[in-house]
Amino acid sequence: MKMTVPTFTLYSAVLMALTLRIVISDDVDNSLADTCLRYNGHCNLTVTYGPPLNTLQCGQNVPESAGQLLSVSPVLKVTNPLTITSKLVLVMFDPDAPGDGFMHWLANVVFDENGVGTIDNVIKDYYPPTPPRNDGQHRYQISIYRSNLDIPITVANSRQVNFCSFLTDNSLTQLIAVFQFKYART
């Protein structure tokens, strides 16, 4: 017995598939920095700057008036106990900076039994968030990765870094903790 598929049904299926593809494409931010950082709106890292700013909320918009408070590196604390305490790498990155993005901080970090982080070895000094004026909000993403190598982390002298290449080149594949805040200057 020969079966035929009605033309209308086949046409509808193709049209629905194309529509679905378009909708998915519109909803997904395809930037490489976002893909590599894997920030999904859920933070398991607490970031605290000095008073009166204090502890930031995950995804918080930091007011421009508080910008001066961002000039000193924050205190970091993981919100869940870590089973991994060594070979951890802290990265603070702005994926919205011109070019491939901007690395604000890179260091080896250790966490104590209370989850409080201490910088063990600075690779790139903390550079405070200073987005270009009138460039809109920039996302500042702080991530903790486990290093899979027994060799030092390497990065170019420039702070303009292709984040995906940096992660790949240094075998930073295991994301341990992440946090994001936003800041803009007018």
Could you characterize the architecture of this molecule?
- The strands form two sheets. Strands 2-8-7-4-5-6 form a six-stranded mixed sheet, with no helix packed on it. A two-stranded antiparallel ribbon has the order 1-3.
- It is built from three helices and eight strands; from the N terminus they run H-H-E-E-E-E-E-E-E-H-E.
- The radius of gyration is 21 Å and the shape is globular.
- The chain is an alpha+beta fold and 186 residues long.
- The chain has one domain: PEBP-like (Phosphatidylethanolamine-binding Protein).
- The model is unreliable at 5-33 (pLDDT under 50).
Rounded to the nearest angstrom, the radius of gyration is: 21 Å
Label the overall shape.
globular
The largest β sheet comes out as: 6 strands, mixed
User: For the largest beta sheet, what order do the strands appear in spatially?
Assistant: 2-8-7-4-5-6
The percentage of residues in β strands lies in 25-35%
